[in-house]
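My hope is that you will study the record closing this message with an eye to the fold:
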Amino acid sequence: MDLEAAKQELEEFIPHVRSIAECSIRKMAGKDLARFKQFKEQGIAVRFGKFSQKENDQIRKNIEEFLSITGIDSAEKLLFTSRYPEEQKNINYLKAKHHFCDKLSEGIPRPWRLVYYRAKKIFDPNNYKGRYTKAEKEELKKYHALHGNDWKKISEMMSRSSLSVAMKYSQIKSAVNYGRWSKEEIRKLMHAVEEVIRKRVGMEDANSRSSSEKSGTDHLIDQETLYQKLPWTEIETKVGTRHWRQCKQKWMIILTNKMTKGQPSYRGTKAIQAKISLIKRLHEMQVEDYSEVKWEELTDIIGNVPAGYIQSKFYRLKVTSVPFWQKKTFSEIIDYLYEKKLPELEEML
């Protein structure tokens, strides 16, 4: 089937199909079109939006049956195969042999990729507990008033992860500023980051050397320590007037400026070339999900910058270049950038 014919047939089921990248359309023609036609014969329309309980149950059933057929021992291994590098080759072989794409989407009138993303959300043990209800939000406020930032204790009381309750409390509390940062806020941010890094380095140092060895010795801090896995909710509390995401973004700007010695690393021709390289490298990775991207391996595109800086530039590129990006999967966004935006950027050089 040629591309135009695929667009015409898919348009019946996905009205916005012409805004999707061509390679994504070809994938949908191969994985979804026949399914969509079968659903049409049954009088069932293709669905978008929030998944129903029935659809969630069907996804769980499909996953359980596929695990039974293949002998793969957990949904996490099936859906997050990259977390298990020793078994990755065999799992991918079993997924291809037993037609994982078809089995996962069986009985669900949605594009395969949307079903795949939903399955990952359901079965990821690291992050999924569903949305917070109004009652849970009130409980969280009450527990925080009693226990402060003891997120471990609060998480046990709410049957949520420590990260989840910390992030949710950060979102619902008041007194957050927006707009330009004041000098006092920047000072507090830098002091807070320095404090948590010194604490971390001190703990690592204590575990690796005796006090006599430490005496009189200056710390040499790895570059990654300055931005990887910092406790942003703790930093937010120390700053007091900003959301943790604002703190993280501002720190990345400050850190990048220091690492590049104030030299412009993302302007003019350099910025265009960096965008081109970023799009090409992401397309070469052929990953299905944002979480599978190893951003630290892409920092050389711009230079001596933290991985978070690259992520922020990708976000800006996505928002400004991809129409209806909120409705697209990660791989569809990359396909669109590669097919539509990349030629435009190359012409600008």
User: Anything to note?
Assistant: The mean pLDDT is 83. Residues 268-348 form one domain. The chain has 18 helices and no strands.
